[in-house]
Amino acid sequence: xxxxxxxxxxxxxxxxxxxxxxxxxxxxxxxxxxxxxxxxxxxxxxxxxxxxxxxxxxxxxxxxxxxxxxxxxxxxxxxxxxxxxxxxxxxxxxxxxxxxxxxxxxxxxxxxxxxxxxxxxxxxxxxxxxxxxxxxxxxxxxxxxxxxxxxxxxxxxxxxxxxxxxxxxxxxxxxxxxxxxxxxxxxxxxxxxxxxxxxxxxxxxxxxxxxxxxxxxxxxxxxxxxxxxxxxxxxxxxxxxxxxxxxxxxxxxxxxxxxxxxxxxxxxxxxxxxxxxxxxxxxxxxxxxxxxxxxxxxxxxxxxxxxxxxxxxxxxxxxxxxxxxxxxxxxxxxxxxxxxxxxxxxxxxxxxxxxxxxxxxx
Length: 362
Fold this sequence. Notes:
By secondary structure, this protein is mainly α.
């Protein structure tokens, strides 16, 4: 018989090393996977992890992909610190993109200075609307936050599809499901000529600093940590549990909505059905892989962005299926959770013989 018994004290060192071990184990599993698919593992690993960033343009593309993932992940980290299991970053991103597009289309022929700030603000409002509905259902009607945030993803996705096939569809777009191209005043400035890297990178850096300072230096950040670690203790200390929960819901939604606005104003320049290949879902992996710390999240976000790029490169060069991207992300999460279990629990093998019981611990 196999049992898991709690360790007396979890190793703090392995708490930080387990994400590194999870990535290493993922690379081993990927090698076996590529070999099983009939591909040269060395070539496949090079194509997946090195080839996309072997030049300056590739590095800037990595940052472009990482921007929306990181914005979503910073917000999710706040929720998870408070033990609020928000799985709705994808929906918040999509709804943010829809609302941002609605605002951007009001400035197609305008050169107003306020166009871009208003479009970004509209995206944040869209994300907050999506997360606010989830917060209301959870905090007022006592619905499970995991279920309501997941279901909001589907509502947001269908809202996006309704918008690009309906009211936001470009009347001059030859019947394609897409909005009109945004005016220049609504587009994020390009940081380096000859690349697609845009002003969204500076927004990510700003979000990184604000979240880091908020969580480590403010009393509200301290209250969120206490709420996540021990809700009864937070109540006894007089912390407003529902207000704190509503706040992290709304902040997370605002950052995810901002990510959606950044995509349509920086990467695509219009609203299309496929604005996100699952950035909001990947942000969940990024948040946990980064140990809910802004710096760790940043490094994890770059890795997941590289996997997205490597998946596209492997499709073109190795003719591998698109699903390989999701498989590698799933492997990282699987190995991370497995490592975390072994950090917190000890495996006990119990052998029962007639009149005798022996136990071996590992």
